[in-house]
Amino acid sequence: MEEGSDYRPWDELIPDALGLIFGKLCLQEILTVVPRVCKSWSRAVLGPYCWQEIDIEEWSEVSLPEQLDRMLRMLITRSSRSLRKLSVTNLRNDAMFPFLAEHAGSLQTLKLPRSTISDSIIEQISGRLSNLTFLDLSYCSKIDAHALELVGNKCKHLEGLCRNMHPLDKADKAVQEDEANAIATTMPSLKHLEMAYHQIGTQNALKILSSCTGLEYMDLRGCWDVELDDKFLLEKFPKVKVLGPFVMDYYQMNNSEEDECFEFSDEDLAWEFVHGEMGGYDYESYDEMWDDDEGRLEELELRFYEGSQDAGLYGWPPSP
User: Which PANTHER family match (predicted)?
Assistant: First the structure.
């Protein structure tokens, strides 16, 4: 870099700044591309700066349970207890929930849709989730009102709750008035509530609206037994936007949004980590690589991007 230049080398950016930048990349790129760019970038990926917010929800939808467990343990460990947000789905290993709770001292947002978390697990870990402000337990069929009561009593700062159900699951569920009552009695600070396809009635909805005085948004799509007149809502609860129960299908609307970073086929998922090879990487060995001459770096770059088979495997564009 020339003296007097207004530009600063990227490898001299502080780790916090690198973490914010790398957070805009896909998980695949952060784990497989960034560490090989330079020594400082490799160290940033190994440290907590990239993992204060972990969003692997879409990746976890298509990964095997054992792959998900390994990935989650690695990323949460790297966060060094500075984890503020975690989004993951289909978490099925009971042992993962206590592990998560051990590292949840700074956790504020937790999204666990479609996970097999149960009332007994909630009872074990809810005391360590006291800093939560947003929780997503949608489509978690093994929990009921008792779990929500535990959450409400332990998470006093909770402002957002997603407890949506799938319309096909409601046939096997008893009337869910107890869950509505648990929300109304233990979560008075809620501002955002989603209860799509719950079997609740009008009185249950009104109890929530009356108890959660700071509520700004309530999703009741698919709650067919709820009858709330728009004029009545405007007069009694003017600050609350109530959606439903009769509205365009919630799941069709959600599934219309796609993230190009996670358009994986089964073949795309065969990266080194998924095949169990990432665990064998010695990232510290990259230090020696960056100390070698430019010729070796060029050789590495060609090897990393040039192979047509690898390009298809990782979904990266061909080399120019």
Answer: F-BOX DOMAIN CONTAINING PROTEIN, EXPRESSED, F-BOX DOMAIN, LEUCINE-RICH REPEAT DOMAIN SUPERFAMILY
CB contact at 8 A, 79 and 45: no
CA distances to 76, 86, 100 from 103, in Å: 7, 11, 5
- Contacts for 29 with CB less than 8 Å, ≥ 6 apart: none
- The answer to whether residues 241 and 220 touch, using CB atoms and an 8 Å cutoff, is no
Residue bearing tokens 């495997």: 313
- For residue 305, give Cα distances in angstroms to 68, 310, 317: 27, 7, 9
Cα separation of 160 and 223, whole Å? 19
> Exposed, middle or buried: residue 6 (CB in 10 Å: 0-12, 13-18, 19+)?
exposed
Classify burial at 281, counting beta carbons within 10 Å of its beta carbon; exposed 0-12, middle 13-18, buried 19 or more: middle
Q: For 25, which DSSP code?
A: S
Supply angle C-alpha 250, 252, 254, rounded to 5.
70
DSSP state of 162: E
Q: What are phi and psi of 63, to 5 degrees?
A: -105, 155
Of 87-91, 165-169, 179-183, 255-259, give the lowest mean pLDDT range.
Answer: 255-259
CA 83 to chain centroid: 11
Phi and psi torsions of 54, nearest 5°: -115, 115
Q: Is the pLDDT of residue 187 over 90?
A: yes
Output the CA angle 137-143-146, nearest 5 degrees. 110
Confidence band (pLDDT; 50, 70, 90) for 268?
A: very low
Q: What's this model's pTM, rounded to 2 decimal places? A: 0.75
Average pLDDT, the chain: 79
CA 40 from chain centre, in angstroms, equals: 27
Contact of 152 with 183, CB cutoff 8 Å: yes
